[in-house]
Amino acid sequence: MTVGVLALQGSFNEHIAALRRLGVQGIEIRKAEQLLTVSSLIIPGGESTTMAKLAEYHNLFPALREFVKTGKPVWGTCAGLIFLADRAVGQKEGGQELVGGLDCTVHRNFFGSQIQSFEADISVPILTSKEGGPETFRGVFIRAPAVLDVGPDVEVLAHYPVPSNKVLYSSSTVQIQEEDALPETNVIVAVKQRNLLATAFHPELTADTRWHSYFMKMAKEMEQGASSSSSGTIVSVGETSEQAKPDIPIYQ
Ligand SMILES: NC(=O)CC[C@H](N)C(=O)O
Questions:
Q1: 247 lines ligand 1 (CB under 6 A)
Q2: Catalytic center at which residues (predicted)?
Q3: pLDDT tens digits for 52-65?
Q4: Which atom of ligand 1 sits closest to the CA of residue 91?
Q5: Mutate-to-test residue for ligand 1 from 8, 9, 47, highest number of ligand atoms within 8 A of CB
């Protein structure tokens, strides 16, 4: 089983490094025909407008939509979540093309601008039940989007509690207001719908590989379900010296 990582812009190297730590080979995808060589795909974080422009320039949208439609596993992180959403608000003037497939509305910069980026431990019961480990996951939110609403087939995997007087979103803006009172609103930050997984944060920037492992299991289950005679195998890169060296800055 080889995993494609859309490599137009953003944190594709970090995803490939995280996969490598699991012994899985990640392949950089820049052209439509390369999608034919992989059985699952990660769309990384970055800047979704730029990424969309590059995808458009390389005529990748039809192939990406086809990939999603044929039921192959796709995981979008941050800008990748925006790519996968059926509906997005808070876009730049003129909007941007989306791959779609995930029945949800996403707010592109829900948590505010770049300087309002933050890290927080988020509760991840479903991830923990599948992958073990701590009850929480260190969410790295970089000018992060959030999911505003989901359709009936979408499973919510994680929330982030925000004081409800702090974030007021309309269809196009987020206003951060002076905080003085609770209660909290649970904002959706991780979802799954059949073959699609999406997180508003960046697991590839942490040392915790549970989301990558979760995605690999999801891909394996789907592959086994799709074809009982599947010959797909995880390509292990083994204990190479390349694997041994620390390859990215890790935020823990
Ligand atoms: N870290 C990220 O991927 C940020 C995504 C950003 N909000 C965008 O619109 O593209």
A1: no
A2: 78 (nucleophile), 202 (charge relay system), 204 (charge relay system)
A3: 999 999 999 999 99
A4: 9
A5: 47
- For residues 214 and 210, give the distance between their C-alpha atoms in angstroms, rounded to a whole number: 6
Question: Is the model's pLDDT at 45 over the cut of 50?
Answer: yes
User: What is the C-alpha separation between 195 and 193, in angstroms, rounded?
Assistant: 6
**Residue of higher predicted confidence among 2 and 137:** 137
Closest approach atom of ligand 1 to CA 51: 10
Mutational pocket test of ligand 1: of 54, 91, 109, 251, the residue with most ligand atoms within 8 Å of the beta carbon: 109
> Which structure tokens are listed for 189?
């930050």
Ligand 1 atom closest to Cα of residue 50: 10
The interface predicted TM-score of the complex, written ipTM, equals: 0.96
Query: Is 48 one of the annotated binding-site residues?
Result: yes
Q: Does residue 47 have a known ligand-binding role?
A: yes
* Among 159, 26, 29, 172, residue whose Cα is nearest residue 88: 172
Any ligand 1 atom below 6 A from CB of 142: yes
Say which residues have a Cβ less than 8 Å from residue 89's Cβ, sequence separation at least 6: 105, 106, 107, 108, 148, 171, 172
